[in-house]
Design goal:
two-stranded antiparallel ribbon; 2 strands
């Protein structure tokens, strides 16, 4: 590896080194002393990785013989992974201590998961893509089942593993057939081969695209590949759920954009209809089932399925817009707004769960009297998920629905369904707000909730970012548009 390649891979190398140091600190030092050291090493490593990633903005290159790409899209998605990982690592210590978990293992696995996400979003070859996806899957399975003393966590991990193994097999089979049809595993070379293929050869690739979509849709948690999400969200450690609900979803969308838009760009009208159907089912099923949930983590799991449908509208809109990148930029904007909003909501849930030992929605009754700050922040995050003004969620939904309305009758149909299901979502989000501010407090848990300083800081960062996007969305829109246009440079 020469110096130029090392600089391109510096973010990944930094995270890998940080993970090794965390494991060494856990093995060498005493448990109490290692706690602070592990957290410090993890936060420094992920911060340095984010800075190294940001320094690559504007670079367009490949590394490791074209296996990994360094371009604005990869940088954008890597920053999402780093930001979500930073917030989770910053606030997870009270949760780890309350359950007497091994902090070193936890931080080590989180850093590896973020590393896998960065590798997957930069993958420019089917081989590197599959290896990174499996790397991410293995760390995710272990993290979801991390609460070994809890049956619900082990059950969630097993279900997650079984669903993941099946969809991974579908994806690998599709990749092998795609290699057989084109004679190459490089994504850009596949695009060139398909552009020169005959009409019959192009149609042969359609079933292969469906097999690939199975693997990508699993990570995105979009219907009909969503079955793992409710159980994993309910049974997994809350900080890990926060990470998977955002960063894993963003990784799936980043890979989907790179493969479907670049490698199979000439087949857009075909797979766009399939993804459009997935989006419709996700929006309707996710939001209607979320209404019936009594557990807030399961509610947000089904809510996340609905949000995956909203983000998918942007990808479909691009395919229907015949080269206009408004849909992709809207999807990228949505991912960042959803990042800070959803992670913030789960961090607030983590505090309540530690205090009362429950994630039932009824346990949030009278939260405003126990912790006005926590109740106010959670309400703000729920408002953003709803799409209320002065939140990042509002601009995200406006961007996605606005781009869909300009993409013909099918796009208009997607936008109308999205708006209708957003109204349904407002019902169950505001029901939690009603519990916190209107319903009398239940006689469960302490009268006052103490929010740890690190969690308060992480919540403040998430809330500030959500508000900043809600007031000044233009800088983020510009970054998203630049990243989306990069896909056009690769496509054409």
């Amino acid at each position: 590896m020469n110096m130029a390649t090392a600089l391109l891979l510096l973010p990944e190398l930094t995270l890998g080194l940080g993970a090794v140091l965390v494991l060494l600190a856990d093995a060498i030092g005493s448990e109490r002393r290692a706690r602070g050291v592990e957290t410090a090493i993890s936060l420094v490593a992920i911060t340095c990785a984010a800075l190294a990633t940001g320094a690559l903005w504007g670079t367009t290159a490949t590394a490791l013989s074209g296996m990994l790409a360094v371009d604005p899209l990869a940088v954008y998605m890597k920053l999402i992974a780093c930001a979500s990982g930073f917030l989770v690592l910053l606030a997870c210590r009270p949760y780890i201590d309350s359950l007497s978990l091994r902090g070193g293992e936890f931080h080590f696995l989180v850093l590896l998961a973020v590393l896998a996400m960065m590798l997957a979003t930069a993958a420019n070859d089917l081989i590197s893509l599959y290896l990174a996806f499996e790397f991410l899957s293995l760390t995710s399975y272990v993290l979801v089942a991390y609460l070994r003393g809890r049956r619900i966590s082990l059950e969630a991990g097993i279900k997650y593993f079984l669903y993941g193994a099946v969809t991974s097999a579908f994806m690998l089979y599709g990749m092998s057939l795609l290699y057989g049809a084109t004679g190459t595993t490089n994504i850009e070379s596949i695009a060139q081969k398909l552009r020169l293929a005959t009409y019959a050869e192009q149609w042969f690739v359609v079933p292969l695209a469906i097999l690939l979509l199975a693997g990508f849709s699993f990570k995105v948690a979009i219907a009909p590949f969503h079955q793992w999400a409710p159980d994993a969200y309910e049974g997994g450690p809350t900080p890990i759920v926060a990470l998977l609900s955002v960063a894993s979803k963003a990784t799936g969308f980043g890979v989907l954009m790179r493969v479907m838009v670049v490698a199979m760009g000439d087949l857009q009208p075909t797979w766009a209809r399939v993804l459009g159907a997935f989006a419709i089912v996700s929006m309707v099923l996710g939001n209607l089932v979320a209404v019936q949930q009594s557990d807030i983590k399961r509610m947000l799991a089904y809510s996340g399925i609905g949000h995956a449908g909203y983000i998918m509208i942007g990808v479909v809109t691009f395919a229907l817009g015949q080269g206009q990148f408004g849909g992709l930029s809207a999807a990228l904007l949505y991912l960042v707004a959803y990042l800070f909003t959803n992670v913030g909501a789960f961090l607030a849930i983590q505090v309540v769960e530690n205090a009362v030992g429950s994630t039932a929605i009824k346990s949030y009754a009278g939260l405003v009297h126990r912790s006005p700050l926590l109740a106010g922040m959670l309400a703000y995050f729920l408002f953003s998920l709803t799409g209320i003004p002065l939140t990042g969620g509002m601009w995200a939904k406006l961007a996605v629905f606005g781009s869909a309305m300009r993409a013909g009758s099918f796009g208009l149909t997607l936008a109308l369904i999205g708006i209708a299901t957003s109204v349904v979502a407002a019902y169950y989000y505001l029901n939690v707000v009603r519990q916190m501010f209107v319903v009398p407090a239940a006689e469960v848990g302490p009268a006052r909730l103490q929010v740890p300083g690190a969690v308060t800081f992480a919540l403040g960062l998430a809330a500030a970012a959500t508000l900043l996007i809600g007031i000044f969305p233009q800088p983020l829109m510009s970054l998203a548009t630049l990243s989306a246009s990069m896909m056009g440079a690769l496509l054409y």
